[in-house]
Amino acid sequence: MTVLQIFKKPQRSKDKGYAWVILFFSFLSHFAHVGFSYGIAGNLTIAHQQFFNINLQKGSLLGTIHVGVLLLFGPIASVLIKKFGCRATQIFGGACILAGIALSALSRQLWHAVILYSVFAGLGVSFCFNASSVILTFHFERYKYIAFSLAMLGNYLGIVLWPLMSQYLLNEFGYSYAMGIMSTFTLINILTGILYVEPSSDNDSEKENPDKPKELELSQAGSETGADNRAVELSEEEVKVEVKLSKPVEETREIQETKLRQEFIELLKLPKVWMFLICGMFWCATDAGFFVLINDYIVYNAGLTEYEAAFGITLLGIGNIVACVCLVVTGSLKFNRFILYFCSIGLTGILTVITAFTSNKTMYYILTTLWGMANGVAVASILGFASDLCTAEQLPMLFGMECFFEGIGGIALVPLSAYISQTAGEKFGIIFIGCCGIVATFAIFPIIVKSVKKQQELHI
């Protein structure tokens, strides 16, 4: 593959060829944005408390805002993808992550870290996360569940490696130097963004490669008659096609904006979409809250060291990978993915509540591994779940809306759990975020019931 071929749009050929190259790039990107963010979240909660001399509520707020911004800007990322494509969105997001993390090394006050790490880097992660996920919908149809699961493996690999790597850097070099070193790894997002190529439409391919036999006939006719006017040899219908192909393929700005508004309104009219969004709001409190708060809770309440707490998150990441591999293996099978998503979210909430009663290292490691497996199934299933609720064209918009509601849940409920931890005891804060996951299952319960009834009707 030459350099020019990288920048040239490949022909639309889903599930094969360059689609698998795109999948590999998406895998790397997930490792360097979401995997990075969640992998270091717990360690940074403790590091921020020590470096800025603040309490748990303020220390956890930095990670909470980071995850919240990551999710809240999902709709904006979706609009950018619609207007500028996945490549431009990914590169811009990668630049934001690099700048935010690198400049965090210069932070000397709490508000510096809030602006640079929490907001600026979180914004970049949001753009990269959406771009590296949506790009898969352009290249996969039959194997979309397998593609989504394999891409999520990058996220889980990051959760396996980043906790121990970041804790080592924090212990050896301190907060400032550690942030500077870790920022170099985020260059992966920019490099993969350069290689993101959306397939061209059929019209594009026809425009670039017109029918060769027709050209040959025209050239021969032109040489025999001495005529060089191509329009003379074309019928009226062919002339119309030629004029149509000569028009710009991209829609005008007004048409794009109208289309976006229509998609947004259509999605808002669907009750199942609202159930999905509310579920995401509560589930994010469990997901983000666990990563942000669990390290501090285990270190100060279960008597484990910071390395041992970080190793628990590594085991969580291994559980993610095991679950993801199982989904990849079963990706081509047909079964009710609504039930799978429902059960995994509920199990995540229940395990979070049980983790609040952890008293020793062995119990902590077992629970984090099981939590990781349940969480891995939920995260790897979310795009497949969403794609069954809407059309392929509406998926970027729905994905952005879901991220926005998750961000609301993270920003509103995780600080509340930190407040509960600070006032009533950390155990009750962990129990609260676990209960949020259980509530999330009730939000999508009507969808599950409807899907089961539909399956039963088909078998009758």
Structure description:
- This protein is mainly α and 460 residues long.
- The protein is 83% helix and 0% strand.
- The model is unreliable at 1-7 and 202-246 (pLDDT under 50).
Which key phrases capture this entry?
mainly alpha; 20 helices; disordered N terminus; 460 residues
Q: Tell me the Rg in angstroms.
A: 25 Å
Name the helix and strand elements from N-terminus to C-terminus, one letter apiece: HHHHHHHHHHHHHHHHHHHH
User: What structural class do the secondary elements suggest?
Assistant: mainly alpha
Spans of at least 5 consecutive residues whose pLDDT stays below 50 are: 1-7, 202-246
Produce the secondary structure layout.
Blueprint: H1 3-7, H2 18-32, H3 34-52, H4 56-72, H5 74-104, H6 110-139, H7 144-183, H8 187-195, H9 202-208, H10 212-225, H11 230-233, H12 236-246, H13 253-268, H14 271-301, H15 306-329, H16 337-355, H17 361-387, H18 395-423, H19 426-443, H20 445-459
Helix pairs in contact: 2-3, 2-6, 2-7, 2-8, 3-4, 3-6, 3-7, 3-14, 4-6, 4-14, 4-18, 5-6, 5-7, 5-8, 5-18, 6-7, 7-15, 7-17, 14-15, 14-16, 14-18, 14-19, 15-17, 16-17, 16-19, 18-19
What's the quick description here?
The protein is mainly α and 460 residues long.
